[in-house]
From TrEMBL:
Organism taxonomic ancestry: Bacteria, Bacillati, Actinomycetota, Actinomycetes, Kitasatosporales
Start and end residues of each HTH tetR-type domain: 13-73
UniProt keyword list: DNA-binding, Transcription, Transcription regulation
Residue ranges flagged as DNA-binding region: 36-55
Molecular function terms, GO-annotated: DNA-binding transcription factor activity; transcription cis-regulatory region binding
Name of the protein in question: TetR family transcriptional regulator
Gene3D superfamilies: Tetracycline Repressor, domain 2
One Pfam family cited in the UniProt record for this chain: TetR_C_46
InterPro entries linked to this entry: DesT_TetR_C, Homeodomain-like_sf, HTH-type_TetR-like_transc_reg, HTH_TetR
Amino acid sequence: MTAAPAYRRLSVEERRSQLLDAALRLFAHRAPEDVSLDDVAEAAGVSRPLVYRYFPGGKQQLYEAALRSAAEELQHCFDEPREGPLLPRLSRALDRYLTFVGEHDTGFSALLQGGSVVETSRTTAIVDGVRRAAAEHILSHLRVTDPGLHLRMTVRMWITAVEAASLIWLDEGKQPPVEELRDWLVDQFAAALAVTAKRDPQTAALSEQLAADD
């Protein structure tokens, strides 16, 4: 006779992580309103009451917790050593970002496009926090401690362009190839800086520095 596998009781944090992982897998490919607590329980191999025990606020609380977890992962996409030329660093960060987008597909679209029945001011704040963190990372890569308005607007506008391009890329069946999309977005960043440089001395100095790095 084959012995049954030994049962191991999970710690509170391990169980919570297990439930969040299951929820994220579901939200990755289905809109939040199409995912039920029963779906999460089944994906995690647990009972519905157990899901409620860890998330007594129900689906809304679970969705917000899963969203925070995804937001943390997205923010880490821009973690890159501050060494070497800027544009290759930005390229590596975009590789990680676009990998996340590709893996989370429908969930990423629902997250950024909004309109979900589970969307609240808190979920909107979580998404905006990712954008602000990405901007701070990029400014840090630029080694700018006191960015002026023109530079801050340029970086935030580029992040918005990256989001829009990512959504269109998903709608178009992940075309063009991800490497081509990445390189195009890096070129867009350099071009945006060049345009702003004509109006802003701070950005002009950064553009000259980027040109020297090449």
